Amino acid sequence: MAEPTPRRKPGTGTRPARPWTDWVNALAGLWLFLSPWAMAPEVSSAAAWNAWIFGLVITLLALASFTDRRAQWGNAAAGFWVFISPWALTYQWVAMAWNAWIVGAIVTIVALSGALSGARRGFSATIRA
Known about the structure:
Radius of gyration: 17 Å
Number of strands: 0
Oligomer: single chain
Mean pLDDT: 82
Largest sheet: none
Strand content: under 5%
Order of helices and strands: HHHH
Shape: elongated
Low-confidence stretches: 123-129
């Protein structure tokens, strides 16, 4: 009977197939980038600029995390900032604040999930090698 093929070779440093976290964060970042045009009556506000900048950052980090899982830690930090930004920047539009809280929580939780599961796999592969 043939043994199942491992998802990755121990010690190679390549990432196993778990791209759902990257796709979720890429889509969340894209939505965050587009949301000022969909939600805010005043497009030039601090909330809109924050959404444009961090939407782009989150999307780019999510795409980078396909090849380097350390980018997920950056996404967790960016998601945390997006979550607290309605308080720090005193958003005037309630819809933009709720959007930031929801997207920030999703990005932070998903990025930490991917980063922590990748760290555990890397640690266990090192022990077995």
